[in-house]
Automatic annotation (TrEMBL), chain A:
Any one Gene Ontology molecular-function term assigned to this protein's record: protein-glutamine N-methyltransferase activity
Annotated PROSITE patterns: N6_MTASE
Gene responsible for this protein: HemK2
Protein's name in the database: Methyltransferase HEMK2
Main location: nucleus
One of the GO biological process terms: methylation
Compartment(s) of residence: Nucleus
NCBIfam families reported in the protein's UniProt record: hemK_rel_arch (TIGR00537)
Keywords assigned: Methyltransferase, Nucleus, S-adenosyl-L-methionine, Transferase
Cellular component, GO annotation: eRF1 methyltransferase complex; nucleus
Record note on quaternary structure: Heterodimer; heterodimerization with TRMT112 is required for S-adenosyl-L-methionine-binding.
Residue ranges constituting the Methyltransferase small domain according to the UniProt record: 26-129
From TrEMBL, chain B:
Originating gene: Trmt112
UniProt name for this protein: Multifunctional methyltransferase subunit TRM112-like protein
Location(s) in or outside the cell: Cytoplasm, Perinuclear region; Nucleus, Nucleoplasm
GO molecular function term, any single one: protein heterodimerization activity
Any Gene Ontology CC annotation: perinuclear region of cytoplasm
Amino acid sequence: METPHIDHLSLEDYEHVYEPAEDSFLLLDALEKDLDYLDELQPRLCVELGSGSGVIITALAKRLASSSLCLATDINPKACDATRRTAARNGARVSAIRCNLADALRRRSVDVLLFNPPYVVTSDEELQTQKFDSQSKSATEGNLVFSWAGGQDGRRVTDILLKQLDDILSPRGVLYLLLLRENKPEEIIKYLEGLKFKAVKFMERRIPGEYLYILKVTRCSS
Amino acid sequence: MKLSTYNFLTSMAIKGVKVGFPLKLTINKKEVVETEFNPTFVERLLPKLDWSAIYGAAQVNPSDMRQKMSFQAELTEDIPAVQPENIGENEALLQKLHHLLFEIDVLEGQLECPETGRVFPITDGIPNMLLNEDEV
């Protein structure tokens, strides 16, 4: 899998959109490692939630170009635009939709779901006192906080997604979810078991200051 | 917004909305981007798609008169209301579907919830489906 070009994105873009970093690259590496599985799965619809720069879904779209439809969602219009530009820069077909998580998608339609959530442990107030503001001019004012601030245990957004997972994934669907050790991956694996999903730590990596995991989640029946 | 993307969009997240599909599509500005025709891909994707929304998309007339002429000539007659059987053997229809689903990009327009009338604008090719807190 090729790492997409991102030279079209500027410092100004990164004022509003999360800049690809070690966590993004771990998710890319996990997909690369699981390409045999993905080829076998023959996904028709692949979706990345909170696509930010769009680097991950673009890489997947390039690899699966002739066999999958790739969509990306983000609440941040600048991220939707960055995703569109990243896809175009790399000759990939990705459609961006501005929405919260998978709210705007038909039920149980997604075969491959990717999510690098806002995982940093913060106070819940930090999340709640922020209101997404399309007119916001700079990163410090606020919008970028939604790309990383995760509230208690860094799990606020992830937990919402997990609750909806049964309604999002197709019968054969798979989720690749990035987590931080502080997000308590074991607790999440147990929780998903209760919802009849099988979750495994598919990859892990230590980076300066963080220990990251990729959780691979499938339905127990599949 | 490609019309293949349109096929997956719903307003179901609005409080009280049951199905929210298909959304009512209005096209104010579109562009056609030629892409390589892959009949196998179109055929494989079809079971995932909702035919009524494919048919509906083919019936939409751009509000701009000049675009309207070419659009109508292209599609309204070509896509049958009911999905034909053995579509894989009908390469001409697969070609039309390819054009409809992957080559037409809606740049400006709107989507409307069939149950509440809530309007979602499409700007610069990106549909804004984000709901306010009091709507969910």
